[in-house]
Amino acid sequence: MEEQQKYARLFNDIDSEALISLGIVLLSTIVLIIVSQRGLNWLGNRLHGQVRFRIFALVPMTRLLILITALAIIVPIIVEPSLRNMVTLMGALGLAIGFAMKDYVSSLIAGVVSAVELPYRPGDWVQIGDTYGEVKHVGLRTVDIQTPDDDLVYVPHLKLWDHAVYNANNGGASLQCVASFYLHPEHEAGWVRKALRDVALTSAYLKFDQPIIVVAEEKPWGTHYRIRAYPVDPRQQFLFITDLTLRGKKVLSAAGVQSAMLPPDAALDNRNAVGSASSRGSD
Amino acid sequence: MGEQPSSADAPLWAVVELDQFRTPEQTQASQWRRSLRSVSTWLGGKNNAEQQVKDESELRALPEVRLAHIVPPIDWAPVAMALAQQLEGQDAPVTFFITTPFSGHASVVTHWAEKHHVTCLAPPTLSEIAEGSTQWVERCVNQREWAIPALERYFLRHTQGIQGIREFLERALSGRLGQGVIGCDSWTYAFLQRAIGIDGAPVFTLQSMEGEQLSRYFAEIATHSGQPPPVYSTRTGKQVLANLKGNGHELVKNEASRKGTNKELQRLAANCRGHVGLAWHYWRERLREPKVDDEEALWLVDALAEAELAADTGDIATLVLHALLVHGGLDDHCLGEVLPFSHHEALNARLALQRKGIVSNCEGRWQITPLSYASVRQLLESRKYLVDPL
Fold first, then answer.
1. What is the pLDDT of residue A275?
2. Which CATH number applies to B91-201: 3.40.50, 3.30.70, 2.50.20, 3.30.420?
3. B321 and B329 in contact (C-beta within 8 Å)?
């Protein structure tokens, strides 16, 4: 009898008043989260430059604050907040999580970490594992990444623990793009370097307050040139790379500079390398 | 007690070094106001956000003849004189004089060259620019002194289009072409500074005008046809022009009345970033007379209700606007050459902007309309495109 009373004291009496309070808090939490997420995303999508990323960074942080506030209100309604009760409750929760919901809860905790450490935030261009794209939403359990092929990939925050996260712009508006050119060894390298620099300088997408670098690398089959430059807006990265590539090819072709004829194995290696380099914005 | 020199005492035309250029008071507030109006237009549609003292339906546009008397074209000769004073003692091989679009750098440099019997160099042909030819540079070598009124006609933003101007500026800046004065659009200057590198050459510009100076200027040009008519603001109902006494040069020194008079024109000055060429277009476009003939007074309708760009203007339109500004206006063919999409897409984007009144044709070139300039500049700046230093 005494034992029953001891467990009964763990939880408060849930009367109709407590139920109504719980309902109101839960409803308010859901409404606040929806309004803040949609509102901030709506606002961020209409802005440009650094402000856009600052607004997006507020999305997960706001949700976390709302959830913590809601928990701080809900727990005392359900549980008598004494030390013994809290230890008992945490122990029971730990047992349940350890056996049944380890990965799920790990993702939730990683979600909290991601909201604080900000390895990615909406608007960032990231690569996690094989997935590259723009972060559209940072949820409680997953981060939603839209790939250049318009697929939406839900990556669990759990990946944070054991995967490298490549963030191409890291909450800023500067994202380096790389356009590659593979040229036959017989050419005037100084002229090519200058011409490729001019190609970048005259691109309508170019961000002028970042450097333009033309890198040349000698290979057994020829010379690999890369233009490294930044577009005005990270969302223009593929248009920018395309513009650099097309105009670069036109200039080189007009000057009689021939493309390298890659041996099949080198071509295969390079295709993989370029695929990841261009899309990640670094090489 | 010492008093800060007010803009009432400042000369109307002051040519200053670029780093001494200051935008007028309230320029930032004017930008905030424009952003706010853009948001309110987006939310609630276009409406007259501010209360009007005078109903605009009671007013009509001025006949062209009367307008030509009250707002004659800007005489750039005084600016050319101010530029000449700055150039005295300059021994740099190249001196730049830059202004924003519609602010007269080409006219000023042409005036200066005529007055000092200096040859104005002919710009290269379009095919010379497009082919990247540097032959035209050879035509410039036999001049001891020369002038270029509009450098924006010397290049196109593509790989071939910058070769000629690069060669020319390299030679000119090293002193191999004698001594020259170059008039240049401020947007072109910003682009060439980054793309070619023209640091080191002295750069002058026309200092901005405050509202008080604009008030004096508009009153003075209207006095050419006699005593200037009173001009009232439809927004406030107050007079907006400075009172000129007797011979028209002695200003009424009543501080309170002067401040009240200038408030509307200070708004205009801030909106135009102090550029008199832009302010002149606003003034000309916004003057009205009453439909009832027995009234002498003129009215200035809300000076800032310009053709505005929507905040969600797309990338293609933005790139078209930026290309037009960097080149000081382009025809359709050249516009297609400097943009990273097809001529067809460029034409469509240009047509859409033309329908909205954002761009217009001037002597075969499409350019931003004067009344849209402020909002276009603000949009490009907010999106981190390269903008001019003025």
1. 42
2. 3.40.50
3. no
Q: Compute the distance between CA of residue A49 and CA of residue A192 in angstroms, rounded to an integer.
A: 33
- Residue B247, judged by CB atoms within 10 A of its CB (0-12, 13-18, 19+), counts as exposed
Q: Do A233 and B383 touch (CB under 8 A)?
A: yes
Question: Which residues, 6+ apart, have CB-to-CB distance to B79 below 8 Å?
Answer: B13, B15, B104, B108, B111, B206
* pLDDT at residue B72 is higher than 50: yes
Listed by start position, the domains of chain A span 1-172, 177-280
* Portion 331-360 of B in contact with A at CB < 8 A: 338-340
Is residue A145 within 8 Å of residue A155, measured between CB atoms?
A: yes
Confidence check: pLDDT of B58 > 60: yes
Q: Is residue A43 pLDDT above 80, yes or no?
A: yes
DSSP state of A206: B
At B273, the amino acid letter reads R
Is domain B315-368 classified as CATH 1.10.10? yes
SS3 letters across A144-202: EEECCCCCEEEEEHHHHHCCCEEECCCCCCCCCEEEEEEECCCCCHHHHHHHHHHHHHC
Residues of A in contact with B385 (CB under 8 A): 232
Contacts of B381 (CB under 8 A, 6+ apart): B387
- Shortest Cα distance from B381 to chain A (angstroms)? 10
Mutate which of A48, A54, A214, A230 to disrupt the B interface (most B C-beta within 10 Å)?
A48
Is residue B155 within 8 Å of residue B162, measured between CB atoms? yes
Locate the domains of chain B by residue range. 15-74+209-300, 91-201, 315-368
Q: Do A198 and B159 touch (CB under 8 A)?
A: yes
Instruction: Say which DSSP state B339 is in.
Output: S
Q: How far apart are the first and last CA of chain A?
A: 71
Separation between Cα atoms, residue B253 and residue B249, nearest integer Å: 12
* Residue B280 vs residues B82, B167, B242, B272: alpha-carbon distances, Å: 20, 37, 16, 10
Categorize the per-residue pLDDT at B249 as very low, low, confident or very high, splitting at 50, 70 and 90.
very low
φ/ψ of A112, rounded to 5, equals: -65, -45
| Contact state of A202 with B157 under an 8 Å Cβ cutoff | yes
Instruction: Tell me how crowded residue B204 is: count the other CB atoms within 10 A of its CB.
Output: 24
CATH value of A177-280 in 3.40.640.10, 2.60.120.430, 3.40.50.261, 3.30.70.100: 3.30.70.100
**Between A and B, how many residue pairs show a Cβ–Cβ distance under 8 A?**
50
pLDDT in tens, B129-158: 999 888 888 888 878 899 999 999 999 999
Note whether B43 contacts A: Cβ–Cβ < 8 A. no
CA distance A132 to chain B (A): 23
* Facing B340 at nearest CB: one of A48, A207, A243: A243
Give the separation between CA B123 and CA B107, rounded to whole angstroms: 15
Segment B363-385, tens digit of pLDDT: 889 999 999 999 899 899 988 89
pLDDT at B221 (0 to 100): 85
Q: Minimal CA–CA distance to B303: which of B211, B224, B230?
A: B211
Using the beta-carbon criterion (under 8 Å), do B159 and A233 form an inter-chain contact? no
